Amino acid sequence: MEFLTIIQIGDSTIRLAIPLLLACLAGLFSERAGIFDIGLEGKMLAAAFLAAAISFVSGSAWIGLLAGITISILLSIIHGLASITFRGNQLISGVAINFLAAGLTVVVAQSWFSQGSRTPQLSGSARFEPIVLPGALSRMREIMEASPMAQLYSELISGHTIIVYIGFLAVPLSWWILYRTRFGLRLRAVGENPAAVDTAGISVVRLRFAAVAIAGILCGIAGAYLSTALQAGFTKDMTANRGFIALAALIFAKWRPWYAMGTCLLFGFFFAIDNRFQNIQMPALWFVIICVALAAGMLFYAIRRTRLDMVVLGGFAVVLLAVAVAVVFGTESLSAGIKLPTQLTQSLPYILTVVVLAGFVGKAIPPRAGGEAYVKER
Amino acid sequence: MSAAPAIELKGISKAFGPVQANKDISIRVMPGTIHGIIGENGAGKSTLMSILYGFYKADAGEIFINGQKTEIPDSQAAIASGIGMVFQHFKLVENFTVLENIILGAEDGALLRPSLAKARDELKSLAEEYGLNVDPDAVIEDIGVGMQQRVEILKALYRQADILILDEPTGVLTPAEADQLFRILERLKTEGKTIVLITHKLREIMDITDTVSVMRRGEMTATVKTADTSPPELAELMVGRKVLLRVEKVPAKPGEKVLEVRNLNVTDDKGVHRLKNVSFDVRAGEILGIAGVAGNGQSELLEVLGGYEEATGTIRVNGQEIDLSGAHSDGQSRRARGIAHVPEDRQREGLIMDFFAWENTAFGYHHDPAYQQSRLLMDNNAIREETAAKMERFDVRPPNPQLMAKSFSGGNQQKIVLAREIERNPDLLLVGQPTRGVDIGAIEFIHQQIVALRDQGKAILLVSVELDEIVSLSDRIAVMFDGQIMGERLPEETNAQELGLLMAGITDTDRPHSVAEIEENLANAGVGRAEVGD
């Protein structure tokens, strides 16, 4: 593989990781304050639509971004009202937001633009353009002929939209807010033991609303990025479950900002692989070795775990071994190349999500008061 | 004295729906004194203090702090008036450090670093002034319950509290830790702080308070100088009638071994060794009391015997070994062997709170042929009638089988559980915390029932964190610490001090021990964490 190819996969990884990262940080603020937010998906989707629509109408991506953030905050406030003020079930409220967004975006888009539930293609200032950093090369031909360092700088570091840089800056900023400020201390406390915060004379409700609103802002940026930076316009269900993947990433990241960045980059990498290699060719032998190695690893891990883990992981291992056996007998020679179906590469991020959620990544301790409305005890 | 009272409440009333929790309560707490408030569960003590701390708004009445009329709409206002509260269930963030917990809500400025530095200095001077030593960087979940309580007190002092309210502070402490707490409180008193101590333990009131107020059914029935009163008088004021504080019982006549436990070991999901080679016997016609601070393996012991925790070792009942692992170990199989179980946490393990009383009395015994109408249908009327009779015999009030379990008071809930288990005529009764959260009047009745069962020649295993209860009921006492039995004593040959040392894991009880030694021992054990319900 050429160096430039690797750089390009890295570049693609970053582009695709950013919406996940922003959504993941949104979930982080919300969940650290004790509010589960399954509605990340819906908020992103609503923001994606409104950002694209307003960008098109106004001709300014920035106004679109503002509109996306606004609608996302509005949905957050609905979530807050339902789950903080009225102490409703946080999961149900989140699911309702997802339904609301999935349905309304399509209906409104159709009646507004009549283009099959899409917004018109965005161009010019209605879209966030890549920023070319000083000294970076922007033409493909120049990049291909440049030195590796110049390629790295021009392709990987330079040439992203402003939102990408905002997304990466949000990581240290989130860390600093959470661990170095009074607000962060209180926010973490309210997710662990709201009674401690309440008896200290601080409003639990206000803190949780603040957290939910921050989640709204970050989701809004993530949504706007999808429709006005990554793509040029809104299409139906364009979030493609990124909100849920962000939740899985959040668990993987153990509710910590820097870990969240690492996890989201990993998920982004899988998406990038899928984008880059629609059809992966590899020798059948390699494939068989990978399958057997994975199966052996799972079994080795499962042996020391509970019975349930053994059944689940054992099941995975059996499937992998069956695939390996099928390949051995299905191909003429083991050195012959086999083509991996695109569906396999496409499903990689989602498979990873399932694995993460099944708890195979070590113990992640969620905020202790997560998911529970705070009621003063008598 | 001419000084204004530190706290004066005038005509405080508070109702929750139809329940009048506080009725026209007036009280004066003089500065620099320790004022006890005693009363049964539900007498309204906690409600009154919650009003003082701004958790509830009183329907009527006035609050004066140091002679000034004060409105306390929220906790912030209470803190500003110099009131600090140490709740029964600590309000600490478990995975924060001591320092972070102390500054939470009392930070100086938006950034943490300066606040933490200031708190560190302040903590050092508070430690010197009041003898309250705590490692500021320790994480709450790693330190013992006594230490956590100290953090709560420090939290209040850091906020410059002059009035300290402690709600049932000794419930989770060993006797040694409780003694130390009282020494701290006395030190605070000499430094001029005012302390309000809420408790239902008469001994604590007599030991430490200057003045005591008694509450009953939402009313303040008396305020007296502690020196002028006596435990029986206070008990009578609390309950409204004369109460026997000590159980009257004839000497036990132990018979055959009913329960033999040998080398019982339990390891929990996290790999913590919860029971370590526990062995003991219980004979027919005797009560074996297991003393210990909550969380030292007593719960696991009851769970194993009750059939819902796996273990290794042997247990024999009436000479026959019972299965400890696998599919045949459950509550049902235990009942078939004549073991009845009154679990420690009646609201979670003993009853289903949203079910009717009659349904609750059938649980575990629902296969009884007397309860079946046909192969498929249960004879609910039969259960209801039987329940009504049981409720009558066990003095459950109100004796109505059609009420949900949650609508009974703690004591009456416990009586329902006891009625279900005792009336099945078991050979062995396991009883965990029989009087936790139960009123004095009901305690008397429950104790009488347990002793009566013993006198019928049944074997009884009693687990309780209340040392007084263990001493007054048991015929033999075993003390548990860190999953082991530290020793057995006869109640008439031991005393609270010796048992207290055993509870802290110290077996050479003849030698004098310092508090520091006891604390170190408790900390090393890594158990004894608070897991106590109300």
Highlighted features:
heterodimer; A: about 375 residues; mainly alpha; ABC transporter involved in vitamin B12 uptake, BtuC; two-stranded antiparallel sheet; B: about 525 residues; alpha/beta; Rossmann fold; 3 domains; six-stranded mixed β-sheet; 18 helices; 20 strands
Task: Describe what this molecule looks like in 3D.
The complex is a heterodimer of chains A (378) and B (534). Chain A contains 15 helices and two strands. Chain A is mostly helical and 378 residues long. A two-stranded antiparallel sheet of chain A has the order 1-2. In chain A, helix 1 runs parallel beside helix 6. Chain B contains 18 helices and 20 strands. In chain B, strands 6-7-8-3-9-10 form a six-stranded mixed beta sheet, sandwiched between helices. The two termini of chain B are 39 Å apart. With 534 residues, chain B is of the alpha/beta class. The chains are: A mainly alpha (378), B alpha/beta (534). The interface between A and B is medium-sized, with 23 and 35 residues.
